[in-house]
Amino acid sequence: MNTLTRWDPIRGMEELHNQLSSLFGRAPLRRPEGQEESITVAEWAPPVDISEDDKEYLIKVELPGLKKEDIHIAVADGALTVTGERKVEKEEQNKKYHRVERAYGRFARTFVVPDDAEADKVAAEFKEGMLGVRIPKSEKAKPKHIEVKVA
Fold first, then answer.
1. DSSP summary character for residue 117
2. Closest C-alpha among 58, 78, 35, 81 to residue 130
3. What whole-number distance in Å separates Cα of residue 49 and Cα of residue 47?
4. Where does residue 131 rank: exposed (0-12), middle (13-18), buried (19+ CB within 10 A)?
5. Rg (CA), the chain
6. Do residues 83 and 66 touch, judged by C-beta distance below 8 A?
7. Burial letters 70-94, b for 16+ CB under 10 A, else e
8. How far, in Å, CA of 33 to CA of 110, rounded?
9. What pLDDT is recorded for position 67?
10. Which of 54, 104, 108, 115 has its CA 20 to 30 A from that of 137?
11. Torsion over CA of 78, 130, 27 and 25, rounded to 10 degrees?
């Protein structure tokens, strides 16, 4: 007897994602049988903007809901690492959750410190869920203006 199987292209993508995730040691997507919408266990990597001007490099990390004590910054071997943890909120007994999309747990983001930066003068500021890490450029790297004299 032949059976008819419903083809779900998203399911195939999730299976591929799970295989790649296990290869790289990451949390797989979880989809209970019979449910149409996937439920994911988010691997948290906070979003980052990196910019520069003539004086410095600026790394902005979005960390809503964290406290200053939950964030650690280290500079070593030409790399700047931002680590931290967003703790799971306490579950209430009489509450039924229909969706949990916010990511929790530990995170680590590592960035290469450019050669023209002064890694020993890194400064950080945390305000309203936004971490700003400033890495000043060395004096040697700053452009020098030379006046050209006409004879």
1. B
2. 58
3. 7
4. buried
5. 23
6. no
7. ebebebeeeebebebebeeeeeeee
8. 37
9. 92
10. 108
11. 0
How does DSSP classify residue 17?
H
pLDDT for residue 25 = 59
Per-residue pLDDT, 40: 44
Indicate if the alpha-carbon torsion angle 103, 69, 123, 112 is positive or negative.
negative
Give the pTM. 0.64
CA atoms within 13 A on the CB side of 70: 18
By C-alpha distance, which of 67, 46, 56 is closest to 110? 46
Give the closest residue to 107 by CA, choosing from 130, 89, 83, 129.
83
Q: 28 and 21 in contact (C-beta within 8 Å)?
A: yes
Mean pLDDT per 10-residue interval, the chain, length 151 residues: 71 77 60 49 79 94 92 94 87 78 87 91 95 92 76 76
- Does residue 30 contact residue 39 with C-beta atoms inside 8 Å? yes
